[in-house]
Amino acid sequence: MLKLRPAPTADGSPPRNTLEGRKAPEELIKALDGGMNPDEYLRETFRAAKRDNQISKGKAEALQLLFANLLAEATATFPVEAAEYKKLLGLE
Fold first, then answer.
1. pLDDT tens per residue across span 61-84
2. Is 26 within a domain?
3. Contact assessment for residue 21 and residue 13, using Cβ atoms and an 8 Å cutoff
4. Residue 20 near residue 14 (C-beta atoms within 8 A)
5. How many domains does the chain have?
6. How far apart are CA 15 and CA 4, in angstroms?
7. Is residue 69 part of a domain?
8. CA–CA gap between residue 35 and residue 25 (Å, rounded)
9. What does the pLDDT read at residue 44?
10. Are 8 and 14 in contact (CB under 8 A)?
11. What is the distance between the alpha carbons of residues 57 and 51, in angstroms, rounded to a whole number?
12. To 5 degrees, how large is the angle CA 7–CA 12–CA 16?
C-alpha cells in the first residue's frame, strides 16, 4: 500500500499532526502496541513516579535524621570540634 506523506510546512518542519521527527518513550510504544489504553498508561506512569518520589523523599528524610543524630553525638563527644564544624556549616 502506498502511503502519502503530508507536505512539509513552509519552514520545512513536519506537520504538527504527525509523529515524524518526534521521539516517544519506547515503553509507551510497546504498551500501545500491546493494546493498552493511553489513559491507563499515563495513569500508571504517574502512579509509578509518585511512588518513586515518595521513596526518594523517605531516603532524604532518613539521611537528614542520620546527620542530625551524628551531629548530636559528635557534639556530646567532641564539643570543641563539633562547634567548629557547626560554625563552618553555618549552623550556629
1. 999 999 999 999 999 999 999 999
2. no
3. yes
4. yes
5. 1
6. 13
7. yes
8. 16
9. 95
10. yes
11. 10
12. 65
Task: Say how far apart CA 7 and CA 16 lie, in whole Å.
Answer: 11
27 lies in some domain: no
pLDDT at 2 over 60: no
From the CB of residue 70, how many other CB atoms can be counted at a distance below 10 Å?
11
Question: And the C-alpha cell for 54?
Answer: 515518595
Between CA 82 and CA 92, with CA 67 as vertex, the angle to 5 degrees is 45
Residue 63 lies in a domain: yes
Torsion of CA 73, 77, 83, 86, to 10 degrees: -20
Show the domain range for 58.
36-89
DSSP the chain: ---PPPPP-TTSPPPTTS-TT----HHHHHHHHTT--HHHHHHHHHHHHHHHHHHHHHHHHHHHHHHHHHHHHHHHH-HHHHHHHHHHHT--
Could you say which DSSP state residue 12 is in? S
Question: Does residue 34 contact residue 43 with C-beta atoms inside 8 Å?
Answer: no
Q: What is the pTM of this model?
A: 0.60
